[in-house]
């Protein structure tokens, strides 16, 4: 393949995947009398998914742009080099903020009482780790005031709310017997960016024998791929990202075809 015949492919998706559950099986509704409350983005929904890949043969050696008339030894060294790349960028997984169950449902959503836009999540490095909701802080839920102080029950309550940097509450526990007003899978988790490269050299040893040397570089940018944050509002580590992957990695290969 010559440089004029280099091939690339690019795919870009704008999707919206809605439903009540990701898979079949038993479905526990927030309100069996109003099942439409459970219609939301599914966990495998991705708003944007851009992927591109291509290969390019370097224009060196006989028939190429450079070194086309080079001596035989030089031609053998510079010809048949090929570069390849794969690029992918995708938005994150839809996530729900979860609280204590205040109805017969196993899970519940908090009440939204302040500004909590869909774009609230952002990977942010801090001194003691990585957080996903910068400018927001976990505080005691207002419902704690109604818990008796006898036998230290009020201080032992683990009901939490979410407040902005000024201390104004934006998410709080719903009242007993009610369903929270924040929509399910309201926010998106961390997106992912990947760039892989490979370089390949083919050497013809004989009429029917070819040696192929190849180096693959995975995640050339060494960009960390962050896992989803903790989204249970009653957990002490709410909003923290505790896992990440995506180390840069090189693989060397040799192949003899005959």
Helix and strand content put the structural class at mainly beta
Strand residues, percent: 35-45%
- List SSEs in N-to-C order: EEEEHEEEEEEHEEEEEEEEE
> What integer is the average pLDDT?
83
Shape: elongated
3D structure, described in words:
This protein is mostly beta strands. Helices cover 4% and strands 37% of the residues. It has a six-stranded antiparallel sheet with strand order 1-4-5-14-15-19, with helices on one face. Strand 14 and strand 15 (209-218) form a beta hairpin. The protein starts with 6 loop residues before the first strand and ends with a strand. Mean pLDDT is 83; it is low at 1-12.
Q: Which structural traits does this protein have?
A:
single chain; 258 residues; mainly beta; six-stranded antiparallel β-sheet; four-stranded antiparallel β-sheet; 2 helices
């Amino acid at each position: 393949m010559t440089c004029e015949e280099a091939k690339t492919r690019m795919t870009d998706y704008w999707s919206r995947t809605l439903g009540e559950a990701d898979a079949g099986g038993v479905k526990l509704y927030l309100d069996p009398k109003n099942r439409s409350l459970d219609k939301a983005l599914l966990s495998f929904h991705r708003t944007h998914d851009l992927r591109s890949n291509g290969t390019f043969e370097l224009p060196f050696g006989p028939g190429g742009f450079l070194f086309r008339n080079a001596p035989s030894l030089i031609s053998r060294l510079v010809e048949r080099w090929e570069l390849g790349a794969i690029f992918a960028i995708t938005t994150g997984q839809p996530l729900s903020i979860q609280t204590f169950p205040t109805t017969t449902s196993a899970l519940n959503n908090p009440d939204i009482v302040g500004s909590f836009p869909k774009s609230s999540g952002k990977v942010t490095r801090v001194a003691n780790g990585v957080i996903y909701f910068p400018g927001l802080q976990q505080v005691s839920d207002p419902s704690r005031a109604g818990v008796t102080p006898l036998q230290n029950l009020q201080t032992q309550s683990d009901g939490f709310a979410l407040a902005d940097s000024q201390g104004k509450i934006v998410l709080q526990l719903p009242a007993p017997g009610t369903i929270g007003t924040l929509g399910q899978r309201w926010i998106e988790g961390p997106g992912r960016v990947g760039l892989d490269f490979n370089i390949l050299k083919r050497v013809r040893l004989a009429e029917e024998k070819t040696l192929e040397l190849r180096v693959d570089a995975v995640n050339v940018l060494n960009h960390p791929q962050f896992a989803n944050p903790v989204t249970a509002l009653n957990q002490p580590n709410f909003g923290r990202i505790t896992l990440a992957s995506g180390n840069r990695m090189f693989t060397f290969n040799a192949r003899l075809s005959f």
